[in-house]
Amino acid sequence: MSEFENCPQLYKYRVIDQLPQPPSLDAERGTLVHTILHDLFENAPSDRTPQSAIELLPSRWQAQMAAKPELMEMVTNEKEWFDRAESLLRTYFTLEDPQSFEATHRELHLENDFSDDIYLHGYVDRLDVAPTGEVRIVDYKTGKAPKPGWEEKALFQLRVYALLYFKTHNVLPRLLQLIYLGDGKVVKSTPTLTDLASTEKVLKRVASDIFASIDKDYWPPKPSRLCDWCYFKTICPAHTS
Ligand code: SF4
């Protein structure tokens, strides 16, 4: 949904038309690091160390390439590739101590029917339930933290997860935590019921805008700095007309 807010034309290419896109190396590196942080919690607490995480790199990368053979040609310097992923994993250990807690859920699927025609779902990287019952929702990012003033926008996705969790469990999460491995920063927020109510309002408003765009087949491009990374720039009316 935030993709529609960023650029309706891009949303159409990706979600409505489902045009294929080649894999992006940044996204694939993110997948690799996410897989390792997921699997790390299979180990006993004493074995959740930087070294044991780094040792998972070759096997998890092999599995990723087996699922997407085109990656083999995209990564030409495997040492450099592993070095970068290793650096992100080492940064993780400067921000959290995975020996000190249990990850209650990883890749937790949350879903809800907000109305007859609005269904929303998503996968939370990690959701921890403390012995006291308090809930923490955690999302790993392999990029850098947003600049000051942009944290609220970045937190929107976690507020949606908090809303989905609240709707299905009737428990208000205590803490939302975005962990940025690109620059070793953490953005935290304590959601309130008012925050969740306004998140739901935004979701319903965006859903209604999307339905209106579908009805009118109206997908205005919204040029921004995002265009420099947009795979569809060569066919986008904002850049071709
Ligand atoms: S190039 Fe820019 S304006 Fe065009 S679809 Fe991509 S993000 Fe939107």
Automatic annotation (TrEMBL):
ATP-binding as UniProt keyword: yes
SUPFAM superfamilies referenced in this protein's UniProt entry, alphabetically: Restriction endonuclease-like
GO biological process, any: DNA repair
InterPro entries: PDDEXK-like_dom_sf, PDDEXK_AddAB-type, Restrct_endonuc-II-like
Sorted UniProt keywords: ATP-binding, DNA damage, DNA repair, Exonuclease, Helicase, Hydrolase, Nuclease, Nucleotide-binding
Keyword Secreted: no
Gene3D superfamilies, per database record: 3.90.320.10
GO molecular function, one term: exonuclease activity
UniProt domain PD-(D/E)XK endonuclease-like: residue ranges: 2-237
Superkingdom classification of source: Bacteria
Protein name as annotated: Putative RecB family exonuclease
Biological source species: Candidatus Planktophila vernalis
Taxonomic placement: Bacteria, Bacillati, Actinomycetota, Actinomycetes, Candidatus Nanopelagicales
